[in-house]
Amino acid sequence: MAQKRPAPVKDDNVSGWKEFSSAEGQFTVSLPGTPKADIVNVGTPFGPLKSHFFVLESDKFLYYVSYVDLPAGPQTPEENKAALDASRDRALANHRLISENDITLEGIVGRDLLVDRNGLILKGRFFYARQRLYHVILTAPTNVVFRDGKPSANAKDRSDLFEKTSAKFFNSFKLTK
């Protein structure tokens, strides 16, 4: 039986956002509403694993946070880089990479990607922490992300709304334990 999708949140005004926390996921993040939580089994190089995800749709953006508990996480900087490369490659399957940067979250090295997915732009951050893979993703149509509607690696080509919304969303993500 198909689940009815909730109506999108109509307000992307970042001043009205509230903190959402997941005790089990061990994170907090600010969002313009309450996300829908779900768990699905996903195929991974380790075999099937449970992916816990939280999704909120607004009138312009889709906010997504997920985590997967791994049987073993990367132990060395080289293993972490290889794992981040593999996560990037899975995210890029049949899509175009616009930009990629190494980032840190509370001392944990991660990856920031901007991807063109057939007219939708995905900005995602990926981290391996405590034998867990976190995905923090913001998706929007090309014309919401870029001033002229054309994908570009140049941050100056991005809309003020996208820059303000993505900064609030990504900068609010914190690990709690």
Which short descriptors sum up this protein?
single chain, 177 residues, alpha+beta, three-stranded antiparallel β-sheet, globular
Overview of the molecule:
This protein is an alpha+beta fold. The chain has a single domain (51-175), classed as 3-Layer(aba) Sandwich (Protein Transport Mog1p, Chain A). 18% of the residues lie in helices and 45% in strands. It is built from three helices and ten strands; from the N terminus they run βββββαββββααβ. The protein has helices at 77-91, 142-145, 160-172; strands spanning 18-22, 27-31, 36-44, 47-57, 62-69, 96-105, 108-117, 120-128, 132-141, 174-175. The strands form two sheets. The chain has a seven-stranded antiparallel beta sheet with strand order 3-4-5-9-8-7-6, with helices on both faces. The protein has a three-stranded antiparallel beta sheet with strand order 1-2-10. A hairpin with a 2-residue loop joins strand 7 (108-117) and strand 8. The longest helix has 15 residues, at 77-91. It is globular and about 45 Å long. The termini are far apart. The mean pLDDT is 88.
Domain count: the total is 1
Instruction: Give the terminus-to-terminus CA distance.
Output: 37 Å
**Which consecutive residue ranges, at least 5 long each, have pLDDT under 50?**
none
**Structural class given helices, strands, pairing?**
alpha+beta
- Strand content is 35-45%
Helix percentage? 10-25%
Overall pLDDT score = 88
Question: Gyration radius, to the nearest Å?
Answer: 16 Å
CATH architecture level-2 label: 3-Layer(aba) Sandwich
Query: What does the overall shape look like?
Result: globular
Main β-sheet description: 7 strands, antiparallel
Describe the strand arrangement of the main beta sheet, using strand numbers.
Answer: 3-4-5-9-8-7-6
